[in-house]
Amino acid sequence: MEAQALHLATLEGKERKVHYMAIASGKGGVGKTLISINTGKIIHTTGKRVLIIDGDLGLSNVHIMLGITPPKNLYHFFMGEASIEEIVVPIE
Predict the structure, then answer these.
(1) Please, what sign has the CA dihedral across residues 11, 39, 74, 24?
(2) Does residue 35 contact residue 41 with C-beta atoms inside 8 Å?
(3) How far apart are CA 64 and CA 42, in angstroms?
(4) Fewer CB atoms inside 10 A, N or C side of the chain?
(5) C-alpha angle 79/20/53, rounded to 5°?
(6) Alpha-helix residue ranges (DSSP H) falling in the chain
(7) What's the rounded Cα separation, in Å, for the pair 73 and 55?
(8) Model confidence pLDDT, tens digit, residues 11-35
(9) pLDDT tens-digit profile of 24-65?
(10) What is residue 63's DSSP assignment?
(11) What secondary structure letter does DSSP report for 30?
């Protein structure tokens, strides 16, 4: 996992310091997705790049809240059907 994070940080050919934040709860419906998206937007306003990974393989909904339809997701990555680059969807 660490190697993949470093790879994402160097996709543009220059190494960047990467910070991680995890927002988790064992209970559904407590606002994890909303907090993740809003925190990402705030960090983005400072000029930083943000990567949000929705790790809820059964009920992921970050894409719904962002109004996007990714062609592939984490399932495809874990099954070896897509690379990490193929599941990242750039948005503005």
Answers:
(1) positive
(2) no
(3) 19
(4) C
(5) 35
(6) 2-9, 32-44, 62-66, 74-78, 84-87
(7) 10
(8) 655 667 889 999 999 888 999 999 9
(9) 998 889 999 999 999 999 999 999 999 999 998 888 999 999
(10) H
(11) S
